[in-house]
Amino acid sequence: MANYSIFALGRNALQRHRHWPRVWRSPKPRPSYDAIIVGGGGHGLATAYYLAKQHGMDNIAVLEKGWIGGGNTGRNTTIVRSNYLNPESAAIYDHALNLWQGLSQELNFNVMFSPRGVINLAHDHHEARELRRRIYANQLAGVDAEWVTPTQLRALCPILNLDPGMRYPILGGTLQRRGGVARHDAVAWGYARAADRLGVDIIQNCEVTGMTINDGRVEGVQTSQGEILAPRVGVVAAGHSSVLAAMAGLRLPLESHPLQALVSEPVKPIMPTVVMSNKVHAYMSQSDKGELVIGAGIDGYNSYAQRGSLPVIEETIRAIVELFPITSRLKMMRQWAGIVDVCPDASPIISATPVEGLFFNCGWGTGGFKATPGSGHLFAHTLAKGEAHPINAPFALERFYSGALVAEHGAAAVAH
Predict the structure, then answer these.
(1) Residue 326 burial by CB count (10 A; 0-12/13-18/19+): exposed, middle or buried?
(2) Residue 280 confidence class, pLDDT cut points 50, 70, 90
(3) Residue 151, domain CATH
(4) Sign of the CA dihedral 219, 220, 222, 228?
(5) CATH number at residue 212
């Protein structure tokens, strides 16, 4: 078997992949489905997978305006954690983290989940108190979290600058040992293949251009490939949720912003964990290829452009070099931005809408990737049952009328 695999790889390399089988089908859309998922990112593909596997719905279409993994799924920094402040947030992100731990086995596809730990730094006494408060809240909610001192930080991340004379000296931080990173592309590919094998139609280059709504009920969508009918439509379109909501006559409480990131040239392993700093708006981890993956905060202006402003990058690099002086001579290889939907309370929306049969999963802000399996699992339940799962019930649209907001600005941190 080993020799066969080696020869197969060699043959495919010489053929330049021309005869490799497709990982999932590329069907033409049918006239109608039992459910349509708008958005072929991680959340949308996960929703379709769990609808098919756990709720027995095999007549499903996922509509993606571009290609699978070409949107925000491929434009993030892959951090996974669940140490949020409010019990509602801790529950939904920890539900996702529990699914992450067995996701490669579930999908029979290596999503490269690496629980290497996530550290949030404290740079002043107020921030230290707030982070300790989050630790206690996490522990009460059953989420692992602990305080680490500067001495412990030196052991966890030897390249971290702990000089007390630096611009923002480090007083300690929080550590979630179960947190870490995963491979964003692999997550999309794994869910796509698994959903396809359960009969889900994944239709790429199929942009939704309108909604078909009669008597307050959704009946389908208009697309660049024609009208497609369905009694249930779930929209999971990340940065463009507001645009799709407007097609249904809805105005959601969202703002869309660019969120920037960049990677360095590859180096030998020097970064054994993930380090985040809200105070200086920067965070960093190391990919399996050796690149240092660096993230920033959102650009302050509203935009649908997949790029950001230079001042944000400049300030982020300034902070990274101070936190990790060893990086000062590294070359940056590429930069990009995703588009994030941000709610007023920095928490997501997973909800039915006033239009019967139309559901939205959006507003994840800067923390969407980490929620991928949990978001899909819960949204599938909401679509199939027509009502929220207890875990995502607090994240319904009604909270913006009732005032029961789930404020997570602090625990959402700089970007993840």
Answers:
(1) middle
(2) confident
(3) 3.30.9.10
(4) negative
(5) 3.50.50.60
Strands 146-148 and 35-38: unpaired
Q: How many domains does the chain have?
A: 2
The Cα 344–Cα 403 span in angstroms is: 11
Strand pairing class (292-298; 282-286): antiparallel
Q: Which of 367, 335, 385, 357 is nearest to 38 (CA)?
A: 357
Residue where the block lists tokens 């239009």: 355
- Prediction pTM value: 0.93
Q: Report pLDDT for 415.
A: 44
Domain residues for the domain of 357 are 32-76+185-254+345-402
Closest CA to 324 of 289, 288, 293, 287: 293
Among residues 416, 414, 411, which one has the least CA distance to residue 131? Answer: 411
pLDDT in tens, 161-177: 999 999 999 999 999 99
Decide if pLDDT at 317 tops 70. Answer: yes
Q: 249 and 353: one domain?
A: yes
191-204 mean pLDDT: 97
Tens digits of per-residue pLDDT, 355-370? 999 999 999 998 899 9
Q: Which residues face 276 on adjacent strands?
A: 120, 283
Helices (H) and strands (E) in the chain, counts: 11, 19
Strand ranges inside 141-216, DSSP E = 146-148, 172-176, 180-181, 201-203, 208-214
At which of 342, 359, 382 does a domain end? 342
User: Which H/E stretch holds residue 94?
Assistant: helix 87-101
Neighbouring residues of 251: CB distance < 8 A, sequence distance ≥ 6: 242, 245
How far apart CA 292 and CA 394 sit, in angstroms, is: 36
Structure tokens at 338: 């995703």
